[in-house]
Amino acid sequence: MKHIIEALEAKRQAARAGGGEKRMASQHAKGKLTARERVELLLDPGSFEEFDMFVEHRNADFGMADNKIPGDGVVTGFGTVNGRLVYVFSKDFTVFGGSLSMAHAEKIVKVQAMAIQNGAPCIGIFDAGGARIQEGVQSLAGYADIFMNNILGSGVIPQISVIMGPCAGGDVYSPAMTDFVFMVRDTSYMFVTGPDVVKTVTNETVTAEELGGARVHSAKSGVVDGAFENDFETLSEMRRLIDFLPSSNREKPPVRPSFDDADRDDPSLDTLIPDNPNKPYDMKELLEKVADEGDLFEIGRDFGRNIITAFGRLEGSTVGFVANQPMTLAGVLDIDASRKAARFVRFCDAFNIPIVTFVDVPGFLPGTKQEYGGLIKHGAKLLFAYGEATVPKVTVITRKAYGGAYDVMSSKHLRGDVNYAWPTAEIAVMGAKGAVEIIFRGDLGDPEKIAARTKEYQDRFANPFVAASLGYLDDVIMPRETRRRIIRSLRALKGKKLENPWKKHDNIPL
Amino acid sequence: MDAAAHGRYPNALRKIDPRGPMFSKILIANRGEIAVRIIKTARRMGIATVVVYSEADRDSMAVEMADESVFIGPAPAAQSYLVMDKIVAAARETGADAIHPGFGFLSEKAEFADRLLAEKITFIGPNPGAIRAMGDKIESKRTAGAADVSTVPGFIGEIEGVAHAIKISEEIGYPVMIKASAGGGGKGIRVAANRREVEEGFPAVVAEAKGAFGDDRVFIEKFVLNPRHIEIQVLGDKHGNVVHLFERECSIQRRNQKVIEEAPSPLLDEKTRERMGAQAVALSKAVGYDSAGTVEFVASGADKSFYFLEMNTRLQVEHPVTEAITGLDLVEQMIRVAAGEKLGFKQKDLKINGWAIESRIYAEDPYRNFLPSIGRLRRYRPPAEGKTGVVTVRNDAGVREGDEISMFYDPMIAKLVTHAPTRLEAIDAQATALDSFTIEGIQDNIPFLGAVMDEARFRSGDITTAYIKDQFPDGFNGTQPTDDQRELLVACAAFAQALVAQRAAQISGQIAGYTPDARAERVVIIGDAVIPVVVTLGEEGAVVAQNGDGREVRLVSTWRPGQPVMEGRFGKAAFAVKISSRAEGFRLKLRGVTETVIVASPRAAQLHGLIPPKPAADTSKVVMSPMPGLVVSIDVVAGQEVKAGEGVAIVEAMKMQNIIRAERDGVVAKVNVAAGASVAADEVLIELG
């Protein structure tokens, strides 16, 4: 018996040693933590239950038969974040560069499957060099198995990918199919093909940072939902995010005690909207003053900044905030903003998170760049996402709600449950000037007439009362009481039950 | 509001002439905090108030508080607050029988006082003759000399040229100051330490004076060593009575703009004070002064010699420190004497009670060379006013949370005054009040003010008008915490994290068998220091032991996550620390210190220690947008040479165009954005090679 225990311990030691001290030191020197250290930071102390420590690859080609390390380059298992179950896999760059063998893939597939079965989030930590080339097609098969579970788990459990090293090929496609992707600045990259291949194929010279660094993906491509300074900050933020998320689509959002007063009024919101209708203001201030303790977790902060998507809490329970941001491009809906918000709305709907929408939108962004880029379809995504969502939907129009964008932004007509407006709201097909230039085209030569008509249109529509008189708005509320009114609405919507017609799945305009 | 105002002047000597005719309604020809200040006193006296307001002040606090308000035009003062016709018309329209001009704007315009005399509206200020007598710097010095007020040795009269200037300078003795007669605001002033510097400086000042003021008259006077700005508050009535209300010291200035004022002055002894007071009274009597006014002196820190500078014929911004030490309400006194009442007290009735410090809270970024920072006050939470123990806190402001600090007027947000029995107690009270004063949305100079309150030389009272230049030669970059401050910050962070963790452990949906990490051991990482702590949460705070030395200190605070300021007691001392959440930690602000602090389990801290710090990004080679906004233009191209201070781009934010300047010389290596792009704060616009 004793020697078996000793053998067990020796194997465990070997697994923990990963790629060895030298490689671990090199990992640290690069500013990165090791796979196990990352799991430790992500999970509650002592909560990690590891699986498959003894798994080794089964490859005998290219000299791999004698080159085995227990665990085979990925650490997997389950643990808790503030007591709530999560499954985790963490790639070990020190072992075969984190490359993926069939055995390595099987370990990941196992935790994915358990997460789906048991209804708990699955968090993947990526720091990997791609396929284990020595294994050939088996490695590709392994990737596909992981992809398959990403797909099956989508909408069932929250899946989060954290990119903490250089990732290419299969190691970017799995993250791409998860709900949220985050990166670490300066130490992580993501691309389908790296700078060398780019150079060979297109003769384009580009650095890894320029091609797929955190800044590129968080601000330009929108592939990732956020970037953080280092491993420590990233994993701390992941714990904060997980606290907002329901464990699966079978559960309600988590609740925790709030130190904030549900009846809190904020008089300063009464002056948030500037007198000049063309002057921007920071919508984030409204979110911060409405959410419990001003605590928000923004998704895609640096991408499509003309719309804000963020998790927050009201009375301790998670809500998803979607808000046009007048500070950037006047809060217009363009391709990036539509894509970003649509995905967020669908996440919330899939996981029973009520959606609170703040509207100040002048319309869709005109121009060839947008039209050639397919704004019609991208804009339709957001329209579709809001319309199909069956979670509680509370909307507040703060200022402009013009044209089709009014419809899109969680309007009554898309089954908005409670739709409020501030007294400063203007709900119309377009701004008064544009409207008059179309309706009274014949008077264009007469500036006086046009001015009079503009004023007429302005008086008629630059207010919330026409929409309110039609029942498209449920009430006109004072800005200061926004938090209280939303909370009351959501209390009443706790029992909401709404189902869409049976279908295999919808066909959202991808 | 009224009760508080009453409480503010516990020693007020209110013996008044009941037969005196008092106004029924006064108009305030001003805005912001001083308008609010005057309304409060008028209300306490039972006088109705009218304020005038420009486009920019439509929803101001003063407008909200006043009984009536009259719109007087566009935001620029030249089209509103400075237009006498509009002010007079507003007074006529509302039936106001007197006008208080506040300070600035029309307060020292003799023509305005003349006009009101003609219109039979009482001007709450001195008679026009007194304003005129003191209005011209050369004239006022002659008058002062005639009244036996000590003036700086110098030459008053026409200077014929450089040779004459040198002769005068050598008679006075170097160093001398060459100054434009119409000068002000730091323009048209040179100091010359020898003949050569006079040769250079004199023609330069003449040219500058002509260019800037259209008046090339120049005078030369002795340059005072270790100069301190000390001023005497005077108060006169229409019956020939004048008293002085002691001195204020306003040596803490930045570019001739007062920043911190106090009363009394740490320099003066009783004898000097009496001499200065007597001279100020003599001068006031000489010009028939009949309101509140201020006689400014420059005093030498070396030998307490003092010389008359000028007289301000109005209420001063810093008048509250005088009110705090005398118990008088100066606005009330101005109103009473304007109405013809006799002063209700004599010089012998007045005495100094305790010490008062005032900080001017400005909308400016102390870390960016005090660049003005305008915009919306997302959060504005001044410290609680009133008396606690021996300390009285008063905050004069004209804004509320959600108001806008506009580009059109003075960027002062508030005046924070603390009063206590001694100077050091008043400074400490000021420091704590500043610590809890929360402003968000725009930058403020509170960290700088807090740093001054902590600074040894300021605390010693050994100050001069060059104090800020001497102590902060490279501008302000924040201060390092002292050991005591670090201990407090560590305790605050540990307490806050313990609360956050305790709450996080109460989330719904936990799996069976989960027990929160109850261990009280934590590690606080602050700067380069890694400090082990043991935190035990209690009913109203926590007990914190640091560094494993077994010494436990109790932190008492009712702070809860989400609140911007943690206030309470740490050990025996009261504290206030601004706190906001960061990843696994907090950003804390205390005095001039800003620290981002991480609180972690010992193991997590160990892992944190494995991550090498990133080299700070070299921002000297880039030009960043200081605020989010829209790029209006990029005014350079790659390869172009730029000089420090040269405008390279224009970014529009909140409809304001801001010129973005290169901070050093260089060649443009890369232009990252084009006109029309929207940029975030700190986004790199241009890279320099």
Q: Which chains have the largest interface?
A: A-B, 59 and 46 residues
- List how many beta strands of chain A DSSP finds: 17
The unreliable regions of chain B are 1-19
Taking all residues together, what is the mean pLDDT of chain B? 90
Strand content of chain A: 15-25%
Shape of chain B: globular
Q: How far is the first residue's CA from the last residue's CA of chain A?
A: 60 Å
What would the average pLDDT of chain A be, to the nearest integer? 94
Largest sheet of chain B, order of strands side by side?
14-13-10-11-12-15-23-21-20
Structurally, how many domains make up the residues of chain B?
A: 5
Q: In percent, how helical is the residue content of chain A?
A: 25-40%
For this structure, what is the CATH homologous superfamily of the largest domain in chain B?
A: ATP-grasp fold, B domain
Largest sheet of chain A: 8 strands, mixed
The CATH C-level name of the largest domain in chain B is Alpha Beta
By DSSP (H or I, 4+ residues per run), the number of helices of chain A equals 19
Q: Sheet bearing the most strands of chain B, described?
A: 9 strands, antiparallel
Helix fraction of chain B? 25-40%
Brief account:
Chain A has 510 residues and is α/β, with parallel strands linked by helices.
Folded structure, characterized:
The complex is a heterodimer of chains A (510) and B (689). Chain A has 510 residues and is α/β, with parallel strands linked by helices. In chain A, 38% of the residues lie in helices and 17% in strands. In chain A, a hairpin with a 2-residue loop joins β2 and β3 (84-91). In chain A, α4 (102-118) packs parallel to α5, α5 packs parallel to α6 and α16 (432-439) packs across α17. The longest helix of chain A is centred in the N-terminal third of the chain and has 17 residues, at 102-118. With 689 residues, chain B is of the alpha+beta class. Chain B is 28% helix and 32% strand. In chain B, the strands form 9 sheets. In chain B, strands 14-13-10-11-12-15-23-21-20 form a 9-stranded antiparallel sheet. In chain B, α5 packs antiparallel against α6 (128-135), α8 (162-172) packs across α9 and α13 (423-436) packs antiparallel against α14. The longest helix of chain B is centred in the C-terminal third of the chain and has 22 residues, at 483-504. The interface between A and B is large, with 59 and 46 residues.
